[in-house]
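agent> step 3/5: call structure_predict on target 'Tyrosine specific protein phosphatases domain-containing protein' (Camellia sinensis).
agent> reason: downstream docking stage needs a structural representation; sequence fetched in step 2, passing through unchanged.
tool.input:
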Amino acid sequence: MDICAYPLGIRGHLRLSEMESAIQWACRKRAQKIPIFIHCAYGHGRSVAVTCALLVALGVADDWKNAEKLIKEKRPHINMNALHRKALDEWSMHKLSTAKKG
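tool.output (status=ok):
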């Protein structure tokens, strides 16, 4: 098992560079067909934000809002706050991840 821990801030503040590093790492593992597990302290906010960005980077969702809907179908009690959404908006503007559909 390959483990990678990223300190994604407490109480919602997600640093764009750290979120991007986590997404790039996860994209590399998925490209290698290695399962990944994303979690934060409570599993309702930061991990959801990173998963939203990852779903966009992998081409599973067109944008983070659609990714959030996909996640909510399976986990209805997710609860991203305004800071999570702001980080996703910032990430979306920069789209640093290079994973493509297909």
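agent> step 4/5: record observation. The mean pLDDT is 84.
agent> proceeding.
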